[in-house]
Amino acid sequence: MRRNNEVPPRYMLKPYYTLKPLIPRSVQILLRRQMVKHKLSRSSSIWPIDENAGRKPPFAVHWPDGKQFAVVFSHDVDTRVGVEKCERLVELETEMGVSSTYFIVPERYTIPDGFLSGLKDKGFEIGVHGLYHDGKLYESRATFKARSSAINRYLRDWGAMGFRSPSMHHNLEWLHGLDIEYDSSTFDTDPFEPQPDPITTIFPVWVCDAATDGGYVELPCTLPQDFTLFVLLRQTPEIWFRKVDWIASRGGMVMVLTHPDYMSFPGKRARRFEYSVDRYRELLEYIECHYQGLYWRAVAKDVAKYWRTLVFRR
Description:
It contains 9 helices and 11 strands.
């Protein structure tokens, strides 16, 4: 299985993240739209579907209760605005009978008292989303090592088992320094990301630590991110639906990644660069309507735990 160990060259990322706070958000998005538009015409053979990602692992995959495929819903809460919207998103998911995983940035914004425990009490999972969300986690091994101590503290204090890097940066070898059961910082295919190297699979991957014989499960995101689809490309959920159908036909894992930060909810005027939460509702309805009883819906930690049993059952 191909593994992604390379981070973007520091000479490429460091200047961008140094200047990023000085660039208005509207300008950042407009620039990214131009970049995505340029890449889109050259990526039709691998996005949104890369047929190579549908190859099965070298062992039999049997999802629990004989289900055809797995579905995981997850959200990256990038900003204070995202935190404020989580209550409405949780209400929607509870209404739809969905439990999901919320990845929270520990030191970028103030986390309200009772916010994490409230999510857990409602059956949702908490994961750690970097430390500051400043694009510098992987700028050097020394930086990563220094921050990993704080990240591990939050993992322990929050009772979290999983991690996702901001901006989907990743170095799977370095992540052995975190006390995690799983990571979800990669994707099966996404040429539009700052670090666009794919893991090229719609199945979880066991990432072994050769030094200790331990490891963790990598859970790649397998649907296009909401930000890419609705904010940058200004597309419809049809791309999501088509990708779900393809993953289901191959018995893989649908890993959904959305950001409440960019969702607009009824009763409030949508701001620029937001999309209606109805897009997400349509995805939930599509999966349930077309695949009722055929898929295993679980939070990320449960999929990681199950995949570990498959790997070591061989």
